[in-house]
């Protein structure tokens, strides 16, 4: 009976997810598409939870629905009249559709084959057998920060590159209008809670669902909330600190990797006895960097005064020359 | 006994969610829809949280559920307020 109920629940969930995905892609209204996309992200988080992948559920809810939603909404604010009506020729449309179909068939086959392959080594068995030497007891963290640490390092590099591109393209977005005192009041309560939750997620990642990406996104959410509640505080950031925080994750990761290379002959080959501590250090630094990166992405460009000391100095010199000239 | 009590709470909570959704679909304008949604969500979630607390023996998890309920309640009240405020300003600009 209970199994039947769960099956009905699961099937309903998948059908709603598919319907949401379809409507998100087919609607003409950008605002509606974004709203539906956020709803789809939340539903997808429930699907991951049902698949017993709480790490992914957390990440999807915080990053997929939360931060991406905020990014998309602020993008709409920048270009309010953008329409989703595209003018593709019949041929292009046909090519896109058939390629998508081919990809779908290929992926379905891969999933089916992967699930039904009777012999061969399953990755989860390999991970679980090596778990005691990884330094952590959460298999997901063990894979991300130890066995496949190289991939995670590159993921951090991808995030950094994306944010550097954003910073290159734009100045910071125009501020929102003055916000409601009620929102400010809630923000004062919520931000400390978000900071504590972020620290908790970072710490708990060693033995339960959590980790640097979720913790970083949660911290970024706190920063976005602050931006929304107190838009008038223009100089909220210390740019020098911000630059250091942006790269500290990848820097720590690489330094630890090189240090381990000098001991164990392989880049990022952790000494098992220290692995737990090293992973925590890397994750703490990565959390800060991810939070900074996502916050900067939300701001949408360089904060005021970002250009750096050199440029400021030239300005100052020019100004002093002009002022001196005026005095003479 | 506890099971019956919990089920009673959860199903009355579901009833509130259900009527909130009907309100969202059927009511004529944004403000009355917001009203239906926010009220129904708060009471509905409170009743469901109560039901789950009755079923869950561990105190630490009960505290977590209460915190979640409080957070959702604050968030839903504030976001309703923000949506309504935005809509009011839009109307004023139209006039």
What does this structure look like?
The complex is a heterodimer of chains A (328) and B (95). Chain A has two domains: 1-81, no CATH class; 137-328, no CATH class. Chain A is 77% helix and 0% strand. Chain A is built from twelve helices and no strands. Chain A has helices at 2-26, 30-50, 54-78, 90-116, 123-130, 139-147, 149-169, 181-204, 212-229, 239-264, 272-299, 309-327. The longest helix of chain A has 28 residues, at 272-299. Chain A is globular. In chain A, 26% of the residues are buried. Mean pLDDT of chain A is 84; it is low at 309-328. Chain B has three helices and no strands. Chain B has one domain. Chain B is mainly alpha-helical and 95 residues long. In chain B, α1 (2-26) runs antiparallel to α2 (30-55). Classes of the chains: A mainly alpha (328), B mainly alpha (95).
Q: Which tags fit this structure?
A:
heterodimer, A: 328 residues, mainly alpha, 2 domains, 0% strand, disordered C terminus, B: 95 residues, 3 helices, elongated
Q: How many domains comprise the coordinates of chain A? A: 2
Write down the overall geometry of chain B. elongated
Query: Rounded to an integer, what's the Rg of chain A over CA atoms?
Result: 24 Å
Question: Which sequence of SSEs, written as H and E, runs from N to C of chain A?
Answer: HHHHHHHHHHHH
What is the mean pLDDT of chain B?
Answer: 88
Number of strands of chain A: 0
β-sheet strand percentage of chain B: under 5%
Shape of chain A: globular
Largest sheet of chain A: none
- Class inferred from helices and paired strands of chain B: mainly alpha
**Which range best describes the helical content of chain A: under 10%, 10-25%, 25-40%, 40-55%, 55-70% or over 70%?**
over 70%
* Tally of domains of chain B: 1
Oligomeric description of these chains: heterodimer
Over all CA atoms, what is the radius of gyration of chain B?
A: 16 Å
With helices defined by DSSP (H or I, 4 residues minimum), what is the helix count of chain B? 3
**Main interface pair?**
A-B, 7 and 7 residues
Main sheet specs of chain B? none
């Amino acid at each position: 009976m209970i199994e039947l109920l769960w099956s009905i629940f699961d099937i309903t969930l998948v059908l709603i997810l598919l319907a949401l995905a379809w409507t998100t892609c087919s609607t003409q209204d950008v605002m509606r598409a974004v709203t539906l996309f956020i709803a789809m992200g939340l539903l997808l988080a429930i699907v991951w939870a049902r698949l017993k992948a709480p790490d992914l559920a957390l990440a999807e809810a915080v990053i997929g629905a939360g931060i991406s939603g905020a990014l998309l909404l602020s993008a709409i604010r920048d270009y309010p009249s953008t329409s989703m009506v595209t003018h593709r020729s019949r041929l292009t449309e046909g090519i896109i559709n058939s390629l998508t179909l081919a990809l779908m068939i290929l992926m379905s086959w891969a999933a089916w084959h992967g699930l039904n392959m009777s012999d061969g080594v399953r990755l989860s068995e390999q991970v679980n057998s090596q778990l005691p030497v990884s330094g952590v007891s959460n298999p997901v963290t063990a894979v991300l920060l130890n066995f496949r640490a190289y991939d995670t390092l590159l993921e951090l590099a991808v995030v950094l590159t994306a944010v550097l591109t954003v910073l290159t393209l734009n100045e910071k977005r125009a501020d929102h209008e003055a916000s409601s005192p009620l929102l400010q009041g809630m923000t004062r309560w919520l931000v400390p809670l978000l900071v504590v939750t972020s620290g908790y997620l970072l710490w708990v990642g060693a033995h339960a669902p959590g980790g640097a990406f979720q913790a970083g996104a949660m911290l970024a959410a706190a920063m976005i909330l602050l931006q929304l509640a107190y838009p008038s505080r223009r100089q909220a950031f210390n740019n020098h600190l911000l630059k250091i925080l942006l790269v500290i994750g990848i820097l720590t990761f690489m330094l630890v990797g090189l240090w381990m290379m000098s001991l164990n002959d392989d880049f990022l080959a952790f000494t098992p006895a220290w692995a737990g501590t090293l992973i925590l250090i890397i994750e703490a630094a990565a959390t800060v960097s991810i939070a900074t990166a996502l916050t900067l992405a939300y701001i949408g460009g360089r904060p005021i005064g970002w250009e750096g000391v050199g440029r400021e100095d030239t300005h100052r010199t020019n100004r002093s020359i002009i002022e001196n000239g005026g005095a003479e | 006994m506890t099971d019956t009590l919990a089920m009673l709470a959860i199903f009355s909570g579901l009833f509130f969610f259900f009527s909130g959704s009907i309100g969202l679909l059927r009511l004529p304008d944004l403000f009355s829809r917001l009203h239906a949604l926010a009220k129904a969500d708060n009471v509905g979630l409170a009743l469901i949280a109560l039901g789950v607390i009755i079923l869950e023996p561990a105190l630490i998890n009960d505290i977590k559920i209460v915190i979640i309920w409080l957070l959702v309640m604050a968030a839903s009240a504030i976001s309703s307020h923000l949506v309504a405020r935005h809509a009011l300003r839009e109307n004023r600009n139209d006039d």
